[in-house]
UniProtKB/TrEMBL annotation:
<comment type="subunit">
    <text>Homodimer.</text>
</comment>
<keyword id="KW-0328">Glycosyltransferase</keyword>
<protein>
    <recommendedName>
        <fullName>adenine phosphoribosyltransferase</fullName>
        <ecNumber>2.4.2.7</ecNumber>
    </recommendedName>
</protein>
<keyword id="KW-0660">Purine salvage</keyword>
<feature type="domain" description="Phosphoribosyltransferase">
    <location>
        <begin position="47"/>
        <end position="163"/>
    </location>
</feature>
<dbReference type="GO" id="GO:0006166">
    <property type="term" value="P:purine ribonucleoside salvage"/>
</dbReference>
<dbReference type="Pfam" id="PF00156">
    <property type="entry name" value="Pribosyltran"/>
</dbReference>
<comment type="pathway">
    <text>Purine metabolism; AMP biosynthesis via salvage pathway; AMP from adenine: step 1/1.</text>
</comment>
<dbReference type="GO" id="GO:0003999">
    <property type="term" value="F:adenine phosphoribosyltransferase activity"/>
</dbReference>
<dbReference type="GO" id="GO:0005737">
    <property type="term" value="C:cytoplasm"/>
</dbReference>
<dbReference type="InterPro" id="IPR000836">
    <property type="entry name" value="PRTase_dom"/>
</dbReference>
<dbReference type="InterPro" id="IPR029057">
    <property type="entry name" value="PRTase-like"/>
</dbReference>
<keyword id="KW-0808">Transferase</keyword>
<dbReference type="InterPro" id="IPR050120">
    <property type="entry name" value="Adenine_PRTase"/>
</dbReference>
<comment type="similarity">
    <text>Belongs to the purine/pyrimidine phosphoribosyltransferase family.</text>
</comment>
<keyword id="KW-0963">Cytoplasm</keyword>
């Protein structure tokens, strides 16, 4: 799809066609949404679709997960007129932090961190990431927010796969994603 083309009928998820399949092998995600972010209307519609479920909900701050969650998270924070908190891979913040180990979608052991002075008890945070595949990264972010006394107001991602981790998140938190129900099985099978 052309990066300037906007279809006449813009149904939820139309912008998913902008994403590119993995050509680099099994150590990478199966699909790359970064091309979607280059399309101005695609990015706007994706963020609008993600936020639609949270209209009227009390949200105090948006947190994006390192690194691609920074793009959608910052865009969502701007639309909501809220602050943005970066949840980082460990070792990047020069302030007091709390850390959480996790296993990412590729099976690699990692550690995530967040600054301790940004989340106060009761602060309602919308967590945003590009993709929830196995759920390990998002679950670590949830644990960091809750350990600091924050409340997870919701979880938003382009896709929340029907994995064990994705189901765990959907059962416990309000969630929004961009994949229409008819396409979800294809995304779950990485087609």
């Amino acid at each position: 799809m052309d990066l300037c083309h906007v279809p006449a009928a813009r149904e939820k998820g139309w912008y998913l066609a902008l994403m590119a399949p993995n050509v680099k092998g099994p150590n990478y995600a199966w699909l790359d949404p970064s091309r979607l972010y280059c399309h101005p209307q695609g990015l706007q519609d994706c963020v609008a679709d993600l936020l639609q479920s949270f209209q009227g909900d009390p949200i105090d701050m948006v947190a994006g997960i390192d690194a691609m969650g920074f793009i959608l998270g910052a865009a969502a924070a701007t639309v909501l007129r809220k602050g943005f908190l970066a949840i980082r891979k460990a070792g990047h913040l020069c302030v007091q932090t709390v850390t959480q180990p996790y296993t990412d979608y590729s099976g690699r052991e990692k550690v995530m961190e967040v600054r301790t002075d940004a989340i106060s008890p009761g602060l309602r945070i919308l967590l945003v990431d590009q993709w929830v595949e196995t759920g390990g990264t998002m679950r670590a972010a949830i644990q960091l927010v809750e350990r600091l006394g924050g409340v997870v107001a919701g979880v938003a991602a382009i896709c929340i796969e029907d994995s064990e981790g994705g189901r765990w998140i959907r059962e416990r938190y309000k969630c929004a994603h961009s994949v229409p129900p008819g396409l979800q099985p294809r995304f779950d099978r990485h087609q």
